């Protein structure tokens, strides 16, 4: 049996094979949380950050809707204290025009993520994108045109074929479970 430290080392070695230079980690929180919820487990964000060597980690960014609840505000404080850069915005509720359709809830961060990655591109060599959204295919290709490595992390039912094909490496989130799962105490 391996120790948890050797497991973490195993994953870091796997990532090191695909990572070059400085690393920017971008988390599409809605996409990531939906994926792990479907898998039946939750992320330990301390463990997730520990996957990346502190020396090469430029920044780890979490894009998340702000519900302004005490519980979520405490979680955001926890993330900030642990080195995450948070990008938030309020949930937008749109009343549908058609009678009986109700309301649509939106808090999409695709544009913010793309703009931030472009603005930060001189600060990193590898982008690790925790999302499976096909809208990021263009971003991935543009980063590769600029000699950036792009690693996509998602799950089978939350990843688009375009991202699997365009990224330098696709990692199924299930492969990381034993290293980043939040364990209830």
UniProtKB/TrEMBL annotation:
Lineage summary: Bacteria, Candidatus Gribaldobacteria
Name the UniProt record assigns to this protein: NYN domain-containing protein
InterPro entries in the cross-refs: LabA, NYN
GO molecular function: RNA nuclease activity
Domain NYN per the UniProt entry, residue ranges: 22-173
One Pfam match: NYN
């Amino acid at each position: 049996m391996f120790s948890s430290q050797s497991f973490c080392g195993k994953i870091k070695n796997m990532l090191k094979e695909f990572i070059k230079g400085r690393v920017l980690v971008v988390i599409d929180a809605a996409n990531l949380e939906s994926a792990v919820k479907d898998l039946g487990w939750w992320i330990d964000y301390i463990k997730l950050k520990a996957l990346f060597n502190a020396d090469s980690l430029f920044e780890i960014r979490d894009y998340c809707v702000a519900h302004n609840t005490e519980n979520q505000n405490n979680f955001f404080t926890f993330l900030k204290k642990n080195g995450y850069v948070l990008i938030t915005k309020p949930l937008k509720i749109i009343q549908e025009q058609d009678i009986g359709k109700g309301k649509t809830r939106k808090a999409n961060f695709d544009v913010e993520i793309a703009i931030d990655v472009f603005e930060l591109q001189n600060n990193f060599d590898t982008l690790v994108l925790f999302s499976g959204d096909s809208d990021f295919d263009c971003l991935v290709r543009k980063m590769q045109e600029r000699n950036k490595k792009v690693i996509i992390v998602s799950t089978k039912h939350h990843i688009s074929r375009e991202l699997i094909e365009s990224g330098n490496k696709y990692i199924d989130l299930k492969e990381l479970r034993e290293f980043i799962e939040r364990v209830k105490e």
